[in-house]
């Protein structure tokens, strides 16, 4: 594997007690997570869990006709592949990298062994799963009841919380696929936010110019999700 894992690179790993970290660290493999990489496909058997370092992974529900919509995002606050330690070998969700970076991966057998044998790991992963479920539920509510520009603000804020800078490499087409809407709708919403001076969009890159303005513009869904992560995982998102 050739590298010494950095425990602080992922907040979930950073929350592990010393004894558990010493057991898990030698089993972690650092991997590149390029844009568009599919970590697991809907219905496919999961072989690893992934702990993003500076990448962001979208969890998508894919319909039979090929349509999809994002139900959650995972960054350096969490782990991709919760089905493995929740008793399932497969999941109906697709996990795809939406912002390139690196991550650590851990074999399925290793994460299941830690989950089953260590109370500290079990409780930490269960709290994270509860926070992730809140994000999924709130995303469904947001997509049903709030305007597209509010949804875009929520999505941008959740992504920013998982990045170190204020810029996202993201095309409008990809955002439309994530939100499950038409590209024209994303274009209109992005232009609206740009006219308000909140973002700058050019050549597939979105730069957030006014984070406070985004927080004021978005619906309550962003705060609900962030507060739940902070409550259940106090060392997680800090913005």
From TrEMBL:
Residues 12-99 form the Cyclic nucleotide-binding domain. GO terms for cellular component: cytosol. Keywords: DNA-binding, Transcription, Transcription regulation. InterPro entries: cNMP-bd_dom, cNMP-bd_dom_sf, Env_Response_Regulators, HTH_CRP, RmlC-like_jellyroll, WH_DNA-bd_sf. SMART domains: cNMP (SM00100), HTH_CRP (SM00419). GO terms for molecular function: DNA binding; DNA-binding transcription factor activity. This is Crp/Fnr family transcriptional regulator. It comes from Simplicispira suum.
